Amino acid sequence: MPHFLNAFSLSAYRQARSQPQLFALLALFFCVGLISGCSKTESPAALPPAVKVFEVGSSSISRSSQSTQDGFSAEAAPGANQIPGELRSELSGTVIEVLVKAGQSVSAGQSLVRLDPRDAKLANSAAEVQVQAARARLANVEADFNRYTELLNKGFISKAEWDRREALLIAERAQFEATLDQLGVYTLRALDPGVVRQVLASRSQVVQASDLLVQLQVKASSRVSRSKVNPKSSQNEVYTIPLTALLDGRTVMRVIPNQDQFLVEPIAVNVLEANERHARVEGLVEGDTIVAVGAHLLSPGQTVRRLTP
Known about the structure:
Layout: H1 3-18, H2 20-38, E1 50-51, E2 53-55, E3 86-88, E4 93-98, E5 105-106, E6 111-116, H3 127-153, H4 159-182, E7 186-189, E8 194-199, E9 206-207, E10 212-218, E11 238-242, E12 251-258, E13 261-268, E14 270-274, E15 278-282, E16 289-291, E17 303-306
Parallel strand pairs: 1-17
Antiparallel strand pairs: 2-16, 3-10, 4-6, 4-9, 5-8, 6-7, 8-10, 11-15, 12-13, 13-17, 14-15
């Protein structure tokens, strides 16, 4: 240490000794600094993923026999999407977004094309502002998640912190889909996992009901489910659920309470009919709670949090 610092320290020490209050204050600062330097800051435990849920039978669209406002006919007439791999628009409107391209692999329930079914274009309405705001929030969370993924790969952050960021991303994606549904935006989604063969839709294109928008090469194994069947279900009970709840075209993730937490388990369902928003299924019972969006990101037995609307 330089000589002038030694002299300064000695002078400060003598001055402090002559003033007991100042000496006590300096001693206190020294102890606090020593304790702070020795303690380690622990990262808070990562919270389980937050998921948007759907309660079977709680909505007017849940029990298909009550009404046809979910888009299905009372007699379950063949719909536009009955041929596997051919995804057609069930409404007339303007294409506002195409989310896939030829050669891309997709999962069951994945969004493919978004459609504004109203006479006035969404771009000319106040709803477009809300859509842009929701999309901007999602983009920020996705960019943040990608950055934390790079930090995890480099060993700069813990796995617990990465899990927390992933939970935030799942919740934000669920909120984004819910916002679009509330604004009346219809989303054409894949009914089965597969590969995109051809995209016939383009942005700003005006389409009519039954127009073919996307062709998929459906995986042959997508029709086989290895999930257990709900033991309480009855084949006579038919319910309408969000299409995004389907995991592989034949499975949903049911949310079950476990002490003070929630776990997810796969349940096999039989899909009777499906359109771009809903599916009529057997295999569930009234009161079942299922994951509405993001089931493909979860594993059987995983702990989750129910997303508060």
